[in-house]
Description:
By secondary structure, this protein is an alpha+beta fold. It contains three helices and four strands. The chain is globular, with a radius of gyration of 12 Å. 14% of the residues are buried. The mean pLDDT is 93.
Amino acid sequence: ESDAEGSVWRSFVEAWWRKYQGSEVGVSDLYSVADGLDLGNGEERSQKTRLGKLLGSVRDRQFGPYRITRWGQRQGAQMYRLVSV
């Protein structure tokens, strides 16, 4: 139970890697693989906002063999990328 949050993040990161690998992606892309993360009960827009905040809070953290990194911006949206370590 102490690593329940880490387990959810590892599952999310694994799904992210399977779909996008090392490509740069935005929150809208990652929303489709964010099952299991607590994004609240709001509408899709508020859930995507929550996902963006969660990603910002785990930036540069490693889950399994992957590290979540910020990767610039595209059209004003923060982009992220997984780096295999």
